[in-house]
Amino acid sequence: MKDPLKTLRETRPLIHHITNWVTIYDCANITRAFGALPVMAHAREECADMTGIASALVINIGTLTSELIDCMIISAAAANKKGTPVVLDAVGVGATKFRDDMAAKILNSARVDIIKGNYSEVAKLAGEHAQTKGVEATSIDADPLQVAKALAGSRSCTVVMTGKEDIISDGKRTYIVRNGHERMGSIVGTGCMAASIIGSFASVNSDHCDAAKDTLCYFGVAGELAAAKSEGPGTFKMYLYDEVANLTDEKVKPLMDFEEL
Amino acid sequence: MKDPLKTLRETRPLIHHITNWVTIYDCANITRAFGALPVMAHAREECADMTGIASALVINIGTLTSELIDCMIISAAAANKKGTPVVLDAVGVGATKFRDDMAAKILNSARVDIIKGNYSEVAKLAGEHAQTKGVEATSIDADPLQVAKALAGSRSCTVVMTGKEDIISDGKRTYIVRNGHERMGSIVGTGCMAASIIGSFASVNSDHCDAAKDTLCYFGVAGELAAAKSEGPGTFKMYLYDEVANLTDEKVKPLMDFEEL
Amino acid sequence: MKDPLKTLRETRPLIHHITNWVTIYDCANITRAFGALPVMAHAREECADMTGIASALVINIGTLTSELIDCMIISAAAANKKGTPVVLDAVGVGATKFRDDMAAKILNSARVDIIKGNYSEVAKLAGEHAQTKGVEATSIDADPLQVAKALAGSRSCTVVMTGKEDIISDGKRTYIVRNGHERMGSIVGTGCMAASIIGSFASVNSDHCDAAKDTLCYFGVAGELAAAKSEGPGTFKMYLYDEVANLTDEKVKPLMDFEEL
């Protein structure tokens, strides 16, 4: 897509979230800063209706309960029916059996278009041996590129593995994105925010592999620009929002650092 | 009221909230920055008791569930019994039938002193044809001034419609407030924050129309001052809190931009 | 402990929280800024498992429900079994009977290693006459030093009372900490954040009285440094995170202001 940010800002799609209580505010705000409209509605009675008027659904299991998982599945089914893209952020998979089981339940109950997680979360989803330290990745034995490709192939979806280098694969194409800054890991929530942005870009770009690559480049560039001005996580977070809101396609293009394998 | 901010800061009223999980932190912080004391307690077993020691109740249906609506009604009934002002922020009414039904259930179960929403939320509550895009207003066919007046008259309450121009009416008096800055719409939560501040001012001013007008002028002036210093939503939000905390009645008065119709 | 911060940053312990929806984001972020890894998982089905891989458990009853209290007790029991330290932040005890009852239920169902609260919350827990204005302390009749000592003695735990002067006692030793700045009280959440940090330091220091004293000195010094740069609660909060992340044991030591009684 030629000008993804311009397209997003002109379209102003509604991005429905069923997400976690830790980063819910940041998911909403980053969606807004990129130019889309966030909404968060997790009541069983309305979640399908809200999905029905939305252009993407982002589900994030960070503070899951059984009830929330049910609502995520109801919402994903509503999205599937309309062909609305569904993003799953598999927060904490690999930390407890319950998370592993609930992520599997979602994947087996509805079509997920984009699966996102850190290296150990995605490896665990792919059936590899992996442990997540709460919501923090630990090193994995398997080759991350192969893990992403294999999961994307077996689930017929796009897989996004975030880490020092981000990997994106739809089973056929695979990108590595090197934008970003370590300060993005010094605050809580940048991973969750990335899922919201992926949902936003995917709502205006049916090539989800491309939408995820654009997300990680654009958000990564904003992170690099914010890091250059900041002196710690407090100033970094503030400047991150300014930089995101002030991004343009023209500004980002020469700074994009990705590779197609 | 002559010096609403001074009065609020000397009184330090307790403002009880049953609100949404997206902006709950900002509702608490802005209440504190204006000089009141926020509390958020949504358990069915204690919500009436907490309302009993509070000077205002703010209910916000942004992330409603059936259980939360029940607790809002229990709390509102407790507030009604003591004559404590109740503010309803009708977030997302017009987006799903469930929201419309739950807002109606609240209004039919308890006395709400101040109804607040954006143009399409309030229009929908007033029985007009209106659709809300998630939690974002869309344009309405009806005349907003007539909508506000009619709803205030039929519900015997104060109605606050926020937008580029804010409209406040108790059915007899109607104010238009022009303070504020478009940057307030660039971050999530300023609408919810306004409801918390309305509750705060209403707790020390039995003229709720006046309390709502003061809120939107004072908060709007803080937004204007913060916007002048900021370069994006991150710096804006930070300065907004500084400006609110550093407001005085003397500083705001010459900057108030409102009209009584 | 000689270099608590260096130790914490090298260990990177996982700190499990079951906390409130108002300050959950700040609890996570401050844990990260100090160098530990936060996780928040309140589902009944996984809370014991998540506690099992954590190095401390922080429970905070700010927005309690009966269901959350059950999960806190399940988690605390799991922590007790492994000898993992448990911190209880008794938010709002003294405001409603339900809070008083639920805090008592936790304390009678599991071993709590560190009880934290403001003056009226702790006094109420200790059986004194005390009222909390929502989550805000009110003045108490009893001598706070005696209250802290007596509760620590009767519960065989460490008690932390926060206020203008912080009191820490394990029944034998008692510290008074004078670090901190009034601006810490101008924003919502610094009390909750302190509980998260106490859990972090206690996870690497079996002397919990010492860990709590270190917390209040280190966090207090960061607050003093941030206050010196800030012009209101917005800039203060931003700088607080920067200062915490940039603390070192060497920087804090000459600024620590505490007394052992």
From TrEMBL, chains A, B, C:
Cofactor dependency: Mg(2+)
UniProt keyword Lipid biosynthesis, yes or no: no
InterPro entries the record matches: Hyethyz_kinase (IPR000417), Ribokinase-like (IPR029056)
Annotated ATP binding sites: 116, 162
Chain positions recorded as substrate binding sites: 40, 189
Catalytic activity: 5-(2-hydroxyethyl)-4-methylthiazole + ATP = 4-methyl-5-(2-phosphooxyethyl)-thiazole + ADP + H(+)
Pfam families: HK
GO terms for biological process, alphabetical: thiamine biosynthetic process; thiamine diphosphate biosynthetic process
Database matches in SUPFAM superfamilies: Ribokinase-like
Its job: Catalyzes the phosphorylation of the hydroxyl group of 4-methyl-5-beta-hydroxyethylthiazole (THZ).
Protein name (database record): Hydroxyethylthiazole kinase
Species of the source: Methanolobus chelungpuianus
Classification of source organism: Archaea, Methanobacteriati, Methanobacteriota, Stenosarchaea group, Methanomicrobia
